[in-house]
Amino acid sequence: MIWFTSDLHFFHDRILEFHPKRKELFGDTVEKSKEAMILWWNRRVNKKDTVYILGDLSFGEVEDKRKLFQRLNGNKVLILGNHDKIPDHLKCYFNHITQIKNIKFKKSVHSFLTRDIEVIMCHFPMLTWEHKEKGSVMLHGHCHGKVDKINEESKELRVDVGIDSAFANYDLVSLEKIDKHFSKIINDSDKY
Predict the structure, then answer these.
(1) 3-state SS class at 145
(2) Structural domain contains residue 192
(3) Which CATH number is 180's domain given?
(4) What share of the chain is helix, strand, coil (3-state, %, to 5)?
């Protein structure tokens, strides 16, 4: 399975103030929230799954991060966000770390896809991206749901996969959900 997420903000004490629904879902302290989110992650993600983390994974001390990264299931690819500080000796917990990622998922490999889908991933939303005019899609985080309405109205091939966006709704986002979402936009539009 392939998953996407962003803006988990492990060890960020103020995130619970900024997004009270996190308290309700995961716990009212940083420690409770961390433990609940690890459990939630590992119930969804198998050891062989791939998770694309589009930034702002974790605050905290280096040793706390190490213990966290060890506990999270899956093959993790980190697209760096503005809060990600990953020391060299912790990079081994990720299959790849980059600022931007472009990948094509093939229908011949993932039979549930309605078409081959090219995905551009960055922590920050972009107005334009590689092969946009050919139907490539942009996944981002950073906005904590604040651009949900803009994306919905514009019918752009862009979506916020951050945990607290309306699209993710406090869950990981599957490649299948991405495909269904953008297939509907493409089918309903004469732009693509």
Answers:
(1) coil
(2) no
(3) 3.60.21.10
(4) 35, 20, 45
Locate 28 and state its tokens: 């009212």
**Neighbouring residues of 144: CB distance < 8 A, sequence distance ≥ 6:** 7, 18, 19, 162, 164, 165
Confirm whether 114 is domain-assigned.
yes
**In terms of DSSP H, where are the helices of 77-174?**
148-154
Structural domain of residue 60, as residue ranges? 2-187
Q: Are 33 and 82 in contact (CB under 8 A)?
A: no
Average pLDDT, the chain: 91
Rounded to an integer, the average pLDDT of 128-137 is: 92
**Long-range contact set of residues 166-173: C-beta below 8 Å, sequence gap at least 24:** 168/5, 170/21, 170/22, 170/25, 171/44, 172/3, 172/4, 172/5, 172/41, 172/44, 172/45, 172/51, 173/3, 173/4, 173/5
Helix axes 30-44, 62-71, angle to 10 degrees: 30
User: Given the structure tokens 């869950």, which residue do they identify?
Assistant: 171
Whether 107 maps to a domain, the answer reads yes
Query: How many CB atoms lie under 10 A from the CB of residue 130?
Result: 13
Say if 144 falls within a structural domain: yes
How many domains does the chain contain in total?
1
Specify the residue for token string 């693509």.
192
* pLDDT value at residue 150: 60
110-120: buried (b, 16+ CB within 10 Å) or exposed (e) per residue?
eeebeeebbbb
pTM to 2 decimal places: 0.93
